[in-house]
Amino acid sequence: MDLFKAQVSPYTSVRQATYARNGMVATSQPLASQAGIDILKMGGNAIDAAIATAACLTVVEPTTNGIGGDAFALVWTKGNLYGLNGSGPSPKNISIEAVKERGYEKVPKYGWVPVTVPGAPSAWAELSNRFGKLPLSTVLEPAIRYAEEGFPLSPVLAKFWNRSYQIFKENLKEEMYNHWFETFAPHGRAPKTGEIWQSKDHAKTLRSIAESNAESFYRGELAEKIARYSKEHDGFLTTDDLAEYKAEWVEPIHVNYKGYDVWEIPPNGQGLITLQALNILKEYNFSERDHVDTIHKQIEAMKLAFADGFNYITEDKWMTRSVEELLSETYVKERRKLITDNAMMPEAGDPRASGTVYLATADGEGNMVSFIQSNYMGFGSGLVVPGTGIALQNRGYDFSMDSNHSNRLAGGKKSFNTIIPGFMSKNGVPLGPFGVMGGFMQPQGHLQVVMNTVDFQLNPQAALDAPRWQWIKEKQVDVEHNFAHHLAQGLADKGHNIRIALEPNSFGRGQIIWRDPSTGVLVGGTESRTDGIVAAW
């Protein structure tokens, strides 16, 4: 792959790819990108920059992530790729029966029931302890400063903030949600574009995490505040749940797609879905990106992979089919046979029988980080711990209440998790981090970005700018408003139910950084569908 082949994007965009040598940070928020670059200039490495950027994003993009959320990372350093799973388990004393006793037939979207142990602070500490060069207190300073002094909202951020506010205003009437409104709608409404928002409580919490290396969050004053708030409102989360948690180092999983190794975090993340779809598609020769048959096969492969993912993915020790089985050549051949010229209704196979922020960083030494962080579904559970600014996630919403399902709700268990960082290499040489945030769009975005890069030789910005499709359910496929009409019509002729979606942000928001192995030059792209930039040095 020639990283510099597509000098000009063939797709409409206000940006072209960014090139640099000493360092690069790509995020959905300019202030966060700049915070990461500042850390690099202070002598930090790509890992320090990733932590700084992630912490900053909890302040400058709280609509999609927060201190009370989860995080995953893929880290290339010292000649190896490392995986970190910063997702937390459900409370030990929760169960299907206990939730049903409260009148729920499915896990609710808001409140304490879907709250799992937040993993992000532990992920920051683990990354810093193992690979960072600067103290965590230094790395978190930009985020602390923005929380304390405030920052002006960017346009896309303001739109989503207001959307969440309207939803919460309509649905969250109980007293326990008041702290969210006090924190994120202090004037009785969502802040507008250009208005300053600040949270001194958020700043105090970040400072406590920085000074204690995240100990206060799990075994100190912050843990006590979280547990107290949970107890006051009959939540399941306790101090024991928090005290027993630590982000987990894991072995990344991969498939070889046409000579390139594509890496993902293993389950409970949904990256396996991307890998399985790529495995199905690798035997096809795609000469054109904008061709009905190309897109049809992509959609069909993704449907098959999702069917298996929804059926099997959960915390690895609870999976009834292993990663190895789902990615085996024997099984993938059987799945590939199911793709015909017509749209199918996807069903899970049996291999034994045959709403997130994403950031990418790189430094001049060759270190690179693919990092993703989420509160899930916007602001998460609607709960903010009093006096802390901590917005708690609702990741437990994805648990199944079916006692026979692999991803069934159980105490101390990690749920199927939508957030996935990606990474690509070739012949053991790292190319770099990539990711596309956005719920169940993420593996679909990963697939499209990888194929845009490998099959169609697009540079990072062009790979992100290309019009996207999104499989929704059954035969329904959404396409962006700039998706070519003849392609949409051709897909409809094959039996897909095509819907033109007017909201661009529903198709994910991605970042990419590739590193030229011969020169060390970095080339990056950032999502044209949101407020982000590539900050370079």
From TrEMBL:
<feature type="binding site">
    <location>
        <position position="439"/>
    </location>
    <ligand>
        <name>L-glutamate</name>
    </ligand>
</feature>
<dbReference type="InterPro" id="IPR052896">
    <property type="entry name" value="GGT-like_enzyme"/>
</dbReference>
<keyword id="KW-0317">Glutathione biosynthesis</keyword>
<dbReference type="InterPro" id="IPR000101">
    <property type="entry name" value="GGT_peptidase"/>
</dbReference>
<dbReference type="GO" id="GO:0006751">
    <property type="term" value="P:glutathione catabolic process"/>
</dbReference>
<keyword id="KW-0865">Zymogen</keyword>
<dbReference type="InterPro" id="IPR043138">
    <property type="entry name" value="GGT_lsub"/>
</dbReference>
<feature type="active site" description="Nucleophile">
    <location>
        <position position="356"/>
    </location>
</feature>
<dbReference type="InterPro" id="IPR029055">
    <property type="entry name" value="Ntn_hydrolases_N"/>
</dbReference>
<dbReference type="Pfam" id="PF01019">
    <property type="entry name" value="G_glu_transpept"/>
</dbReference>
<comment type="subunit">
    <text>This enzyme consists of two polypeptide chains, which are synthesized in precursor form from a single polypeptide.</text>
</comment>
<comment type="pathway">
    <text>Sulfur metabolism; glutathione metabolism.</text>
</comment>
<feature type="binding site">
    <location>
        <position position="398"/>
    </location>
    <ligand>
        <name>L-glutamate</name>
    </ligand>
</feature>
<protein>
    <recommendedName>
        <fullName>Glutathione hydrolase proenzyme</fullName>
        <ecNumber>2.3.2.2</ecNumber>
        <ecNumber>3.4.19.13</ecNumber>
    </recommendedName>
</protein>
<comment type="similarity">
    <text>Belongs to the gamma-glutamyltransferase family.</text>
</comment>
<keyword id="KW-0012">Acyltransferase</keyword>
<keyword id="KW-0808">Transferase</keyword>
<dbReference type="GO" id="GO:0036374">
    <property type="term" value="F:glutathione hydrolase activity"/>
</dbReference>
<dbReference type="GO" id="GO:0103068">
    <property type="term" value="F:leukotriene C4 gamma-glutamyl transferase activity"/>
</dbReference>
<dbReference type="GO" id="GO:0006750">
    <property type="term" value="P:glutathione biosynthetic process"/>
</dbReference>
<keyword id="KW-0378">Hydrolase</keyword>
<dbReference type="InterPro" id="IPR043137">
    <property type="entry name" value="GGT_ssub_C"/>
</dbReference>
